[in-house]
Write a structure and sequence with these properties.
The protein is mainly alpha-helical. It has one domain.
């Protein structure tokens, strides 16, 4: 298989994965609709940098070594599951408070630690959500090991990294832009509670399922 074919296949598989609903997708949807375009774009940048780091670690074999250490991988899963559950709790708490609020100025009451007040926080939220997601680690280990041969040139591997990073940045940035247009904001504003609630459920279900599996694995190893 030529390097061009490998890179084209890699790009196709990765782009399909990006469009699949998951924590990254939900994070952009929730925050772009709530905080606007700039926050959504910085979250997109954080997510794409997390994907780039996952790609580098997988390509260099570091992620594979982590995946082959059951105790270490279980601890990573616990950390990731806890973080996603934390995001889910915050989103559900904000949804509940919005439902209970009568006056509009009370509808944005949230846990202060979950608010995004600047670019750095938005970038950090995106980066942490991706890099702490153990499912992303497994995905990139599988993707790199199955599609990128060890004999591939350094130039080819560098192009592969750029493809994974740029596709991620373009897709999540487009999503943030599309959800923060004035027309879309008017439509989404009325559904903000439902968006927060749905994203909260998604974060919580994924986070708690990861925690359940990882703690069972960890106790089985002890």
């Amino acid at each position: 298989m030529s390097e061009f074919t490998i890179l084209a296949t890699l790009a196709s598989v990765h782009f399909i994965a990006l469009m699949s609903p998951g924590p990254d997708f939900a994070l952009v949807v929730q925050n772009a609709t709530r905080y606007g375009r700039q926050t959504g774009l910085y979250i997109a940048l954080g997510l794409s940098c997390g994907i780039l780091l996952h790609s580098i670690l997988s390509l260099t074999g570091v992620s594979y070594l982590v995946h082959q250490q059951p105790t270490l991988f279980a601890l990573l899963q616990i950390a990731g599951g806890s973080y996603l559950s934390y995001l889910g709790y915050g989103a559900l708490k904000g949804t509940w408070q919005s439902v209970q609020s009568v006056q509009s100025e009370q509808q944005n009451i949230e846990d202060p630690s979950l608010l995004l007040t600047n670019k750095r926080q938005a970038f950090s939220r995106g980066f942490a959500t991706n890099i702490l997601n153990p499912k992303a680690l497994v995905f990139f280990v599988s993707l790199m090991s199955s599609l990128v041969p060890a004999t591939m040139s350094l130039t080819g591997k560098g192009i592969a990294l750029m493809i994974l990073w740029s596709l991620s940045l373009v897709w999540f940035s487009f999503l943030a832009w599309a959800l923060s247009t004035q027309r879309m904001q008017r439509k989404v504003k009325a559904m903000a509670i439902y968006v927060d609630g749905l994203c909260g459920v998604l974060f919580s279900v994924i986070g708690l399922s990861i925690l359940w599996q990882s703690t069972a694995t960890l106790f089985g190893l002890l």
